[in-house]
């Protein structure tokens, strides 16, 4: 099935001993198109970016399963050969709802998703004051997702995320991840690590379960590069707010320019062409492919050009 192809490809990447999967965070079709154009072989759909872009709200558990699954599916549909890893927050309810969430993500063509152990009114993992469910509740979420995967005949990768480090300490956090792995999780995600020693130790303690690393600019975890992450043994590294930060900074600059001067000057690339002009953006989003498809199937919508 089409919806399992990207998951299978991601599993092949994870099985490659020399491979580390590096994903920029994208939150909409345009940021995803940019990342695909640059040549990334996997993408990460950020929950924080989805909340900010779709709702204009902070990452405080305000998105619904449909907000998240539909956004992930749109991104995954841009290029089915490129796996998309997506945030699934807490699974959005009890075991029945978690199973339904897993089904939605599978049908949307997502390659992997992570589920965490926060309460339903969750918050970004790099904010303070996070509240957790108990270990049995967390394990039930993972087990429900794994059961849905089996019933759907899917190969989707389930990533167990714990936010227990902040309030319960390292040993309890690792115990939760191990319990989640026994319940069917394929990867371990320890959120909010504060030292490189913790980053090193969790990979060793969770072996042979592969580990997932979250690099958040301005967050609590020290930032390391891909070479360092590979040396520590991580299999997936995400930079979740890459797209959101770029959009925020770029839009802020242009709005200040327009407000201050009454216009926005064209940016020129090295070859003298306008950088980021309308047609360039449309071409990035598949303009020529759309025109060609229309022609190939006998359409005449663009016979006079586009």
Characteristic terms for this protein:
alpha/beta; globular; TIM Barrel; 306 residues; single chain; 12% strand; 8 strands
Question: What does this entry look like structurally?
Answer:
With 306 residues, the chain is an alpha/beta fold. It contains 13 helices and eight strands. α2 (29-38) links the parallel β1 (21-26) and β2 (43-45).
Number of domains: 2
Going by CATH, the homologous superfamily of the largest domain would be: Phosphoenolpyruvate-binding domains
Mean pLDDT: 92
Rg estimate, integer Å = 20 Å
Instruction: Return the CATH class of the largest domain.
Output: Alpha Beta
The helix-and-strand class reads: alpha/beta
CATH topology name of the largest domain, in short, is TIM Barrel
Q: Largest sheet, order of strands side by side?
A: 1-2-3-4-5-6-7-8
CATH architecture title of the largest domain = Alpha-Beta Barrel
State the end-to-end distance. 34 Å
Give the tally of β-strands.
8
Please work out how many helical segments DSSP would assign.
13
The poorly predicted ranges are none
SSE string, helices as H and strands as E? HEHEHHEHEHEHHEHEHEHHH
Give helix % range.
Answer: 40-55%
Organism: Hypoxylon rubiginosum
Protein name: Phosphoenolpyruvate/pyruvate domain-containing protein
Short summary:
The protein is an alpha/beta fold.
Topology at a glance:
Blueprint: H1 2-15, E1 21-26, H2 29-38, E2 43-45, H3 47-55, H4 65-76, E3 84-87, H5 95-107, E4 112-116, H6 135-152, E5 157-162, H7 165-168, H8 170-182, E6 187-190, H9 196-206, E7 211-214, H10 226-232, E8 236-239, H11 242-261, H12 278-284, H13 287-296
């Amino acid at each position: 099935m089409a919806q399992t192809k990207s998951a299978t490809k991601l599993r092949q990447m994870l099985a490659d001993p020399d491979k580390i999967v590096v994903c920029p965070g994208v939150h909409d079709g345009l940021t995803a198109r940019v990342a695909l154009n640059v040549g990334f072989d996997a993408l990460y759909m950020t929950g924080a970016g989805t909340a900010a872009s779709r709702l204009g709200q902070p990452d405080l558990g305000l998105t619904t399963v449909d907000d998240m699954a539909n956004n992930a599916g749109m991104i995954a549909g841009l290029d089915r050969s490129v796996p998309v890893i997506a945030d699934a927050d807490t699974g959005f309810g009890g075991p029945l709802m978690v199973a339904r969430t897993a089904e939605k993500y599978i049908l949307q063509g997502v390659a992997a998703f992570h589920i965490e152990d926060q309460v339903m009114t969750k918050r970004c993992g790099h904010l303070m004051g996070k509240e957790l469910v108990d270990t049995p509740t967390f394990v039930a979420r993972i087990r429900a997702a794994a059961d849905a995967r089996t019933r759907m005949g899917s190969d989707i990768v389930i990533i167990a995320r714990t936010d227990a480090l902040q309030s319960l300490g390292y040993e309890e956090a690792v115990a939760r991840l191990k319990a989640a792995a026994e319940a069917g999780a394929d990867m371990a995600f320890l959120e909010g690590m504060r030292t490189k020693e913790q980053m090193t130790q969790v990979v060793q303690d969770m072996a042979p379960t592969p580990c997932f690393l979250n690099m958040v600019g301005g967050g609590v975890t020290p930032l390391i590069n891909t070479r360092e992450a590979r040396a520590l043994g991580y299999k997936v590294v995400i930079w979740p707010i890459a797209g959101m930060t770029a959009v925020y900074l770029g839009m802020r600059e242009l709005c200040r320019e327009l407000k201050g001067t009454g216009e926005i000057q064209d940016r020129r690339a090295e070859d003298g062409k306008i950088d980021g002009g309308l047609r360039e953006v449309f071409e990035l989003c598949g303009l020529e492919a759309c025109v060609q498809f229309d022609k190939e199937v006998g359409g005449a919508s663009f016979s006079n050009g586009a």
